[in-house]
Specification:
By secondary structure, the protein is an all-alpha fold. It has five helices and no strands.
């Protein structure tokens, strides 16, 4: 009984870490995509930045809770769309290409989180 309670506590802790990470990355993405400044002069392609940002956003929750992968993917893509819609109000331009890069990144991040979670679980079950 005590072991079950400890497992449930650990699962809540991991979920909290995954959720906190996701919220943190969502805020960073909002600041970077809605402000002008050094982000525009960062090395690399704008589309690459969008893909990487949304891959990082979509990774943590599927890693700690694989059942959330579909929900995270849909939410991340919707978030990318919402950002593109409101960017003109912040002096930025909305681009379909940015939205598509967000979606590709979200898919890659959520899928990678799911695969990494399965790998970690298999690895944890292998006796040494």
């Amino acid at each position: 009984m005590k072991a079950m309670a400890e497992n449930a506590s650990k699962e809540r802790d991991f979920l909290g870490i995954g959720l906190a990470s996701t919220v943190f990355f969502a805020v960073v993405i909002a600041v970077m995509t809605l402000s002008k400044g050094p982000v525009e002069s960062a090395p690399g392609s704008d589309k690459l930045h969008h893909m990487l940002g949304f891959a990082v956003l979509a990774f943590p929750l599927p890693f700690v809770r694989p059942k959330l992968t579909g929900l995270v993917l849909v939410a991340a893509i919707a978030y990318g769309g919402a950002i593109e819609i409101i960017q003109p109000f912040f002096g930025r331009t909305a681009e379909l290409g940015d939205f598509l890069a967000d979606a590709v990144g979200a898919f890659f991040g959520a899928t990678s989180g799911l695969v990494a979670s399965r790998w970690a679980l298999r690895r944890a079950r292998i006796p040494k």
